[in-house]
Every structure is written in C-alpha cells, then in structure tokens.
Amino acid sequence: MDAELFEDLRRAAGAWPLGFVVIDLDAGTAAGLSQARISCGSISAAPLQLTVHAGTLHGSWDLLDLSAFWSTDRINLDEATRFLSMRVLYSTQTIFREVYTLTERATACFDGKGLDIVYPSAARHALPRELRSGADPVAVLEGLLTEVTGQWRAAPGRTAIELSGGMDSAVVAVALSDLHRASPHSVHTAVLNLPGEAGVQQMSRRDELIERLGLGPDHVVPVAEHAPFKPGGVRRAGVPFAPSDGNTAEATTVLQQRLVAAGVTTVFTGAAGDDLLDLRPEERRRLNRPRTLRSIPDWLGPSGRDALAWLEEGPAPAPVLKYTTLTGLEPRWPQTMRQGLWPVSPLATPELLRFAEQLPVQWRRRKVLFRRFLGRRGMSEAVVWPVLRENFAPVMETAMRRWGVPLLAEVIRSGSILADAGLIDPDAVLDVCEDARAGGPVEQLSRPLMLETSLRSMIGA
Predict the structure, then answer these.
(1) Co-location of 375 and 434 in the same domain
(2) How far is the C-alpha of 190 from the C-alpha of 220, rounded, in Å?
C-alpha cells in the first residue's frame, strides 16, 4: 500500500467518533523482536484485556477468553478488595495480576518481552452555564439524540431497545422510533419484568411507549423467575462468569438469547442516563443530598484490610466520558457481546455529555430534561412521573435470603478461595450469614458471593 494512503487511513481510523481499537505492528527490531502498539478511542465500553505470556501478547474484550491466565495465586488483592467493598476504580487493573485493561484513549506498547500501558492526558469537562433567553434545551436534546443514535445505522428488524420503562431507555426509544419511521414496528423491545405492583406499573408505562412510538415485537422475561443464584441458573450450574456480570446475570442471559433467536443483532440501551444528568458533589451539598460511600465490611480478612490503603491509588486520568459511565458499561458490554449481540448506549457519548454538563442544575435534577422531552412527545403523566420506584433491589434481597445466603455459607465451609487469599475472614462472614437468616441485612453479602462463585467458575476450584 502507498505510504501516503496508509497514513491517511491511519489518521481516519484514529478520528472515528464511535468505539475503535487500532493496532500498529512493526515488522521487527534489531534484536529480532516484533513490536505492537494498541490504542483506542474515548468510547471504550468493552475495552481490551491484555496480558503477555512467553513473549506473546494475548488480548480479548472478554476476560473469560484469557482462561490460561487465571489462577488463585494471580488474584489481584487490591482489585478484589475494591470489588468486595464496592470501591470501583477506573484503571488498568483487573481481578488478576498481569492481566490489564486498555482504558479509554490509552496506548498499550508491546516490545516482544513486556507490556506497558501509557495513559492519556486528562480530558477537560464543561461547567454549568446560564441559559440564554429563549433557549430550548429540549429541542437541542432531540436534535443531538437523533444525530448520535443515528451514527450506528441499525438495521430495521434486527434492532432492539432494552425498554425498562424508565426515563433513560424511553428517550433512546424515541430517537430509534424517529430513525425508523419508514419501517414502523420494526424495532424490537425487551425488558426484565419486575414482580408485584412495581412490575404492573412498569409494563403499563412500557405499553404506552410501545404504542405511541410504533415499536415492534416485545420480549419479556420475569426477572423473579431467573433470580440471582436461583437453582437451575447459569451461575449455579458453574458456567464461567465474570465477577462484574451483575445481579441480574441469569435473567439478562435468557433475555438476550431470546433476542438472538428473534434475529436481533444490535441492542440499544439507556445506560449512562444517570451519569449524563447527575449532579456534581457541590450541587448535591447545596441541595442537602450528598452521596455517601457504603461502609467498609467488617468481615474483610488481613489481605483485604491491608489493601484498604491502596484502594484509591492509580486511577486513569479524567476520561472524556465519566468514570462512572465507563465502570458501569465495562461489565455490561462483554456480557451482551458474549451472546452475539452488539450493544449500543447512545447516552454514553461525548456530544451528549458536553451538552448536559453545561445545563443548569434545575434541568438535570430529577432528570427534568428527559421528563420534559417525553412530555413534549405526548407521553402521559404516568410515564413521565411514575408513582412507584422501579428497581431490582427487592428481587436481589429476596434471592439473597432464599438462595444466596445459604449458598455463600456452603461454599465458605467447603473451602473458600477468598479466605485462603486472606480477603475475607470466613468466620466473620458466616456470622453475618447467620444474622441474615434471622432477618438481618444481606446487602453486603452479595459481593463475596459473586466474587467467590465467579472465581470458582473461572479457575475451576
């Protein structure tokens, strides 16, 4: 290929506005070693996981593909403690030492022997401003949302939207509906249906959205039927899964498999909507709504307690998107891609974030921007301002009490990977399990259960 043409193509690849990975290969060095440089863009929701073994560079977007590098002696104690204590850090570290994440805009350099990841400069972010007289943020949102969502050019009949009924997925559904006006009822919808009154409200709101927007076939999976760690689910069966696959991994897998069976190849989500319109710490303080961290578990073992001093060490520089956006998407995208679906989160884009960052607090608080947008599109009060809260917390608590706590006690008594690594005090965890069986709190027990069972599924212990 002509050198000038190659450079033009290389520059074009690096300027691509959506997610990308570019690999530059050098034929060799004077010592006969090949070299590689791997770089990625700012939308890095399913980043590469990289490691070097015997002079060979290995990589995948899915940690589960790197099974040759899993072992109990390679557990990253700092990262494991972050997971157990719910202290997420966006960095190159993974649950295993010597396996690294290529974070957004970073460059991994491989010289034939070792791997070095170079962080980019910190990204700059906008601050809130006063609106000009006559400014219409809702109209700006509509234009930006349609433009951003349209970049993926999803095919009619092969596209779905995870339509929970909430604000975030609803606004994405509006954009998809506008983009597919020529093919009405071609965009599939999907949902994990909540139990009880919240689930009835959820489905009623979704029915209105589907009818008004002209959306297509609906795929519904009752989340309680595939509750976390319920016997018969993938995690109880020992199917390998990553620690970060989340509370609804069983139900999500079933739903995604149904979409694939229906011919869907691309699934849109409302992920990152919370981050897009989130309030800054100083704004929360002014409104007397500060965000507090969960307390450190009392059942951490000696290695876990030692790691506490390092939990905030080594974060990647400020990303173009938000830390919370990237740490939220990082586990979701591989899980979806594992099923053969391409996930898209239009709300996790620099254009929309820069717009939202500049809005006054009254437009971001309680997602007023999204609610006014949906109201302008004719949605009822029930859709825009639902009475009941809709989330998975009750399902998770019920599942932990019925199946999770007994399973955690069982796996710890049979010999715990986390206990052997000093990450937990097994006796202390068993005491909390007993307290939970008597009606005590269960929230802190989900993390050691997810990590313990995940490591067992990955390492084969």
Answers:
(1) no
(2) 6
